[in-house]
Amino acid sequence: MNRFLFLVMMALPTFVNAQQQALVNTGNSRFAVLSSVDMGAVQWTSGFWAERFAICKTAMVPHLWKTYTDPQISHSYENFRIAAGLDTGSHTGPPFHDGDFYKLLEAVASLYAATKDKQLDALMDSVIPVIAASQRADGYIHTPVMIAERHTKGGVKEFEDKLNFETYNMGHLMTAACVHYRATGKRTLLDVAIKAADYLDRFYKKASPELARNAICPSHYMGVIELYRTTKDPRYLQLAKNLINIRGYVEGGTDDNQDRVPFRRQTNAMGHAVRANYLYAGVADVYAETGDDSLLTCLNKIWQDVVYRKMYITGACGALYDGVSPYGVSYNPVEIQKTHQAYGRDYQLPNMTAHNETCANIGNMLWNWRMLQITGDARYADILELALYNSVLSGISLDGDRFCYTNPLSVSDKYPYTLRWAGGRIPYISLSNCCPPNVVRTIAETANYAYGISDKGVWVHLYGSNQLHTHLKNGAALQLAQVTNYPWDGNVKLTVQAAGPEAFTVFLRIPGWSHQATLLVNGKPAGVTAAPGQYAALHRSWKAGDVITLQLPMPVTLMESNPLVEETRNQVAVKRGPIVYCLEGAGLPKGANLFDVVMPDKAALQPMPMQIDHNNMMGLTGTVRLRSDTGWQNTLYREAAVNDTKPLKVTFIPYYAWGNRGHSDMAVWVPKYFQYFGGQIQSQ
Asked: Do 262 and 210 form a contact (C-beta atoms < 8 A)?
């Protein structure tokens, strides 16, 4: 090899082994207990996730692709064409529109990884050159600024506006580029991301720390680390560490952006929930590479604050449309900080006014997935599953082309004023269409969350009928077939189709909601403890034909909240397995008011297969009580009525399916039924 070629090769990034093609690629992360299987290693075969994945391919992605490439609807892609000089005009849409298109590209790449559909590959090839052509020579890429530069001849500069979402967009570019590279082997989008990361690396080396707070919604922490995992360029790891180090060390930081207080002094979830959860996920990524215990200590405290005091029963995050920071610098009304789309105070979890942006709920998933990779602790998988089935899926219609920006736990037409983000499911959220591509890429990628690999063996995180083809850490091939009707019943059958000669462990997650789970191997008791909220470890030499049977009882459970959550005191929610249920006015008899329904202790709800909009699901039927509606016109308080109820047969539906039968009232929490007996009020 001549000296010139040697120097060129040494200057190029060293890419990871071709066998390590996971979505979140922790295969070489020194401080992560688990790594993911490769993209495409898991194929949904039937049941719940196979149905969702099919709709993602046939409806969700085509709908969004048409939306984003039709300038009469959205300028998301058109902005790249204008920035590349292929068209004229001005930037149109929110400043984070570039990131919306990158998320859609990631969804397409993830579908391609699973299907190898050449049409999907061609679709990506048709737009990536335009994105590349829009990029400045120095690597900067952000269409609002680049288009404005052309119109004002240099009068607009990057990072002048802290709400311009430059690094947010670049972060989603990096993530999408890594996924595209792993799925296709092509560097076309990856080269764009590398140039953008190199630009950020140079920029932050010479910029003042004050610019750290311009990192609104820091998706770039995850993006930079994933780029490091792909290229092994140490500059990107150092960049990510520096971005954490300079947060909060400047006047003018805000709790709304989590940069008033240095990260290593944060112990509570605060401010904008999307920005917060993206930050926590990115910090977890940095810990996985560095082992910096000061980061993990903060993440653990913040996680406990969220899960024990600030998270909805659906796994949703971000209770407030607008509020004030409970951790502001002063209680002086002049100085208290306004927060937006934010975590509220402890136990502040309203229902009708709940914001719960779909992106925040996905951020909760992304964060818990990384905490699971780091620790192997099943409690993180429990939260991931809770959010995925409930507050993430609720963000998209069953037919795949209508979306919710917010995910309230109660809806009423009688509410006296229009909520800031009211509107239910709509095809295009013009003011903020960030959530649709986010939920679509998440559904496209669900198979990547099903399994994990460690030095000890294979881990089963999510249950659903699928085929797994992967390798263990020792290189041995492993094939598993999973058959189940989960989440509608808890019977799971895992068949070993191929395994190496060395003994290894199969770790099966026993969900925290599951009690009295049983495990069989080849029809006989497995002899291991199946404790709720832990992984049951089955260690042995496995051979083709071995069968593991997991039985997770799924009784209907009435849930109650901590009494400090005043909005749900003396109310119950219905849960079965991982699914949270709700009542919809559309499912009640004509004339029955949803908010006159009260729940007796012995409603005896029973599972019943049903369909909504041609989608299979499990409803829960039973008899509740309906109070007599005597009207509240011009009445704020009145004497409590007793013995004024009659029985009413109802069907609870999965919360994620609400709003698919037309406009309707909805409630997750239902008041307990109290009956009057001889001078005493008794629960029924």
From this structure: no
Residue type for 437, please?
P
Q: Of the given ranges (6-15, 208-217, 639-648), which has the lowest mean pLDDT? A: 6-15
Does this model's pTM top 0.85? My answer is yes
Q: Which residues contact residue 610 at a Cβ distance below 8 angstroms, ignoring those fewer than 6 apart?
A: 616, 617, 618, 619, 651, 653
Q: What are phi and psi of 529, to 5 degrees?
A: -80, 130
For the record, the structure tokens of 120 come out as: 């999907």
Write down the residue that tokens 């630009």 correspond to.
199
User: What is the C-alpha separation between 52 and 396, in angstroms, rounded?
Assistant: 11
Instruction: Please answer whether residues 453 and 36 qualify as being in contact, where contact means their C-beta atoms are separated by less than 8 angstroms.
Output: yes
The DSSP line for 493-514 is EEEEEE--SS-EEEEEEE-TT-
pLDDT tens column, 19-77: 479 999 999 999 999 999 999 999 999 999 999 999 999 999 999 999 999 999 999 99
Among 295, 262, 257, which residue's Cα sits nearest to residue 273?
A: 257
361 Cα distance to chain centroid:
5
Tracing tokens 């049941």 back to the chain, one arrives at 47
Q: In whole angstroms, what is the distance from residue 620 CA to residue 573 CA? A: 12
State the DSSP H helix or E strand holding residue 189, giving kind and residue range, or none if neither. Answer: helix 188-206
- Rounded to whole angstroms, the Cα distance separating 631 from 670 reads 19
Number of Cβ within a 10 Å radius of residue 487: 24
Percent of the chain past pLDDT 90, that is, above it, reads 77
User: How far from 294 is each of 178, 259, 283, 524, CA to CA, in Å?
Assistant: 28, 17, 11, 46
Q: Compute CA distances 33 → 26, 289, 494, 533, 557, whole Å.
A: 9, 11, 23, 18, 33
Q: Please return the burial class of 403, using the count of CB atoms within 10 Å of its CB with bins 0-12, 13-18 and 19+.
A: buried
- Name the 3-class secondary structure at 165: coil
The answer to whether the beta carbons of residues 203 and 156 sit under 8 Å apart is no
Assign 154 a pLDDT band (cuts: 50, 70, 90). low
| Among candidate residues 143, 100, 108, 103, the one with its CA nearest the CA of residue 124 | 108
CA–CA separation, 101 vs 25, rounded Å? 22
Q: Is 391 helix (H, G, I), strand (E, B) or coil?
A: helix
Question: For 508, phi and psi rounded to 5 degrees?
Answer: -110, 125
Distance CA 201, CA 239 (A): 6
Query: Quick check: 564 pLDDT over 60?
Result: yes
Amino acid at 314: T
**Largest Cα–Cα separation, the chain:** 99
Does 520 score more than 60 pLDDT?
yes
Q: Which amino acid is at 658?
A: W
